[in-house]
Each structure stands twice: as C-alpha cells, then as structure tokens.
Design brief:
With 118 residues, the protein is mainly beta. The protein is built from no helices and 11 strands. Strands 2, 4, 5, 6, 9, 10 and 11 form a 7-stranded mixed beta sheet that branches. A 4-stranded antiparallel beta sheet has the order 1-3-8-7, with no helix packed on it. Strand 5 and strand 6 form a beta hairpin. It is globular, with a radius of gyration of 13 Å.
C-alpha cells in the first residue's frame, strides 16, 4: 500500500516562504513525482514535477519561485515555496504514479493547506 503524507502547510503573508514535505511509504526513486494544488472553485492544477533523472518541471505561475527536490533516500519530496502570493492559496498534494513507466498519477496524499494573505 502506497502512502503519501504531506506536511508543512500553514498561513503566511504574501512574500513569505513555506516548505512542504511529502513522506512516502517507500522510495520514490525511478518515479516521476508531482505536486498538485487545488483551490476552491478551481480545478486541480499541476505545480511541479521531479523526474527520475533529476530533471524538474514547473507550471508557469510558480516558475522561479518554487523548487521541487527530494532527500538522498528518495522517500521525502519537498516543495520550497518562496515569494508566495495570494493566488498560491490552495490545498497542495503530492502524487506518485502506479508504475515507473508512465507519469499517470494514481496515489495522492491527503493534502496540506497553504493560505497566503495580503
């Protein structure tokens, strides 16, 4: 059973920073891990990817402000969020695919709330 548990969310003023963590029940090595977010009245959107080769991808709204990484054991995924904006307010989820072959996300954590105030 794959478990993903996010933490690190909270309330912060615009311009502040937060670091989210996602603890996986096993290694995430060889998987393309992803952070999503969802705010009320909006569809879930992709935020950042960490691919198995170490490459990263970021959605345009967070590019240059957010950084995705993992620890050496590959069982923790991080999302460093700087220069936070009110528009970043959302529940943030980490996700893992069912297999290492395709980046089709099957497993999601319960999410952590990020609230940014002006």
């Amino acid at each position: 059973q794959v478990q993903l548990v996010e933490s690190g969310g909270g309330s912060v003023q615009a311009g502040g920073s937060l670091r989210l963590s996602c603890a996986a029940s096993g290694s995430t090595d060889k998987y393309c891990m992803k952070w999503f977010r969802q705010s009320p009245m909006k569809e879930r959107e992709a935020v950042a990817n960490l691919f198995s080769d170490g490459k990263t991808w970021y959605a345009d709204p967070v590019k240059g402000r957010f950084t995705v990484s993992s620890n050496n054991d590959k069982n923790l995924l991080y999302l460093q969020m700087n220069s936070l904006q009110v528009e970043d307010t959302a529940v943030y989820y980490c996700a893992r695919p069912a297999t290492t072959t395709f980046c089709v996300y099957k497993y999601f954590g319960q999410g952590t709330q990020v609230t940014v105030s002006s």
